[in-house]
Amino acid sequence: MPDTAMPALSNLKFGVGQPVPRNEDPILLRGGGRYTDDLTLPGQLWCVMVRSPYAHGIIKGIDTEAAREVPGVVGVFTGADLAAGGYGPMKCVLPLKNRDGTPLRNIERPALAMDKVRFVGDPVAFVVAETKSAARDGAEAVYIDIDVLPAVTEASAAAAPEAPQLYDHIPGNTVLDFHFGDAEKIAAAFAGAAQVTRLSMRNNRVVVCAMEPRSAIGEYDAGSGRYTLHVGSQGVFGLRAQMASDILKVPADKLRILTGNVGGSFGMKASAYPEYLCLLHAAKLLGRPVKWTDERTGSFLSDQHGRDHEVVGELALDAEGRALAVRLTAFANMGAYLATVAPLMGTGNFVKNVQSNYATPLVEVNTTCVVTNTSPVSAYRGAGRPEGNYFFERLLEQAAKESGRSAIELRRINHIKEEALPFTASTGSVYDSGDFTAVLDHALEVADWDGFAARKAESAARGKLRGRGIGNFLECTAPPTKEQGEIRFEVDGTVTIITGTLDYGQGHWTPFAQVLHQTLGVPFESIRLVQGDSDLLIAGGGTGGSKSLMASGAAIIEAAQLVIEKGRAAAAHMLEAAAADIEFERDGNGLGRFTIAGTDRSIGIMELAQRVRTADNLPPELPASLDVRHVFDQAPQAYPNGCHICEVEIEPETGIAEVVRYMSVNDFGVIVNPLMVEGQAHGGIAQGIGQALYEHVAYSEEGQLLSGSYQDYCLPRASDLPSFGFVSHPSPCKTNPVGAKGCGEAGCAGSLPAVMNAVVDALSEYGITHIDMPATPERIWQAIQSARG
Predict the structure, then answer these.
(1) Do 88 and 218 fall into the same domain?
(2) pLDDT digit string (tens) for 114-124?
């Protein structure tokens, strides 16, 4: 581990490993948070978007005259207005290639559709007015003349020969024909296998139901030629780069992104949306700030959706049950436009995660990425990682049933052994740590696997089917990118951390403060966190891919070491000693002190920072402050893993499935704050249960969204969930200074297979071997009726 490694776990009250409550909770619970919609700027105008009511059609004309006459309306804008501004498009940034080596067929999306509309909700115009109600009235007065065309909403259907074509330059609606793996070797492995298991699986599309709808305010200063965008995001540094360079076509210093509190995102608020350019354009033209806040119906239509893959999985085993190869053949629905990282989930993240923690020597992924007349699809909590684990776990369970083997023994046989670490997977990932079989065995013990028969009998006595399922998982986090770690000693005695990740509900303030408190010994209660101002950043990878603590934590540790180096020099001057004789340590209260070795002469770090800042006539070689601005370079991705065990009850006469028992054992490496990590696991599990049993985006044949509100789209409620058991079985990560592995998306990775394996196990009494997500009462009931004949 690097020299800047995290100090050993301690008993410090606010140190690493302590379950410290979140600093921001008292503020948020008292209503003291500041979300984008809470802002009202002087002279502010309101914006309302005009969206297509049709999924596919040619725009013949847009009549805005009536809208301009609505009282209070100050501007109506169409794509032609934006085109005159010379702005750039939104597009995919991934350098992916087709199997023949040619680049993917990208789509340059303008903020407002001009030639065609391609999904219900596609923005074609916007109205700006003195009030929101006036803007809404103006939007309703805009008339769009659309020559309606046939629509297609399923990826496999869009790739069919006679499907409606969305773009002239994308034949067959296929933007990417992705392939990974040695097809010849894998074909040979399947040909020589003792057993081949094949399953058709659907990774259902979901709405990203963030607590806070998207909202933004655009400003423009004519004197400086500078834009400001107040917006909920997942990282202001990256969003500024996209908006300034690609869309506004201005230098980065001509745009400031400000993000306050954010009510959830799960991947959806990571990149630019059409509304943001519209607001900035109007603010520049009208000379006043312009605000837009979506309503929930608009969110269902306009926000990027998650998941949506049709997959055929195949698993080849030898006579002893060892995996020889796994192959995925998939259609990935991109929606009507390519979001910034849209193809990643069904391509690279399938590749990296389908192997999980099994020593599978060969992996092949074939994915056809297709555009359809639906809302664009992008990252959603896990972004291909939970799916990869789900596919392998369902294949393994099915293989066990087909061969009469124990699925638990199949897992043990195929697990990468601890002594084989570091292990280089066939996909290129290098697993540095873990004890996967021990985690499985621990989960079986704490979940009382052996007591299931009695519980099943008790359920049967009440007329219920009971099933149990295992969700073994390993996910490859996003690799931490360059990240800022700035430490500032303020005049008021507080210490500010500035970093480029962004808290959109996770609670970064507390664990980051714990890391700094333990490393540098500054008082925990004095530490503040600043993240959401692009003007303060020189680097920042944002939050996503379960990497924030690994990135910002490492940056904070390295910055703290630089503070200590500066402090030794300053303390030597103040204490009239040689710098080589100055030692840094924490006192009995956990506070940092600089001491002359072998003496009791010392100075605390907070006092030293204040004296350095106010001292006159310091020698020129000494620092003028202890402040440090540092950029952590990067670290490899990490590999959180674990095992979830779920039990469900099903009422056969109604098809209603209920999760009644749930346990997880997790290896997240060094856990800085166990209270918060457990909360992250709970959230991921709840979302996994939602996708597995309740959530599904449905479109009509014409492309109309049938599940466009919470009357038609079901989320799990608290009453649908049991208490979640959580146990930690850590193996510290060896490739980053914190020793952490990431935890934010792992709950989804373990819960999808655990829940669905439990549902299938319960239904196995009827000979049912597979059911797709979501396992709604209707689907379960129909499966039972079909099995009964």
Answers:
(1) yes
(2) 999 999 999 99
